[in-house]
Structure prediction request, 88 residues.
Amino acid sequence: MSKQIYRCGTSIGANIAESQFAQSDADYINKLSIALKEAAETIYWLELLYETDLISPKQYESMLNDAKTITGTLVNIVNKIKNKNNVK
Prediction:
């Protein structure tokens, strides 16, 4: 499970970094949407780690808070770009 959380967690940053060189708003939204999916997967793996007592409640809350902050930020950015371009 820790390898899975490592993969999806680092993929968030990789997709955000890649989005900086997007060729269009659609490409930018796509890259950030992939990062958003990876953030959701990270939350899933965190929940499994916590439910199987592999991480402490304190660790879980800290990492979950970070993942939710990242998720919220990505949602806001994607929605802002979509609204600017009247994309649904």
About this structure: Residues 2-84 form a domain with the de novo design (two linked rop proteins) fold (CATH 1.20.1440.60).
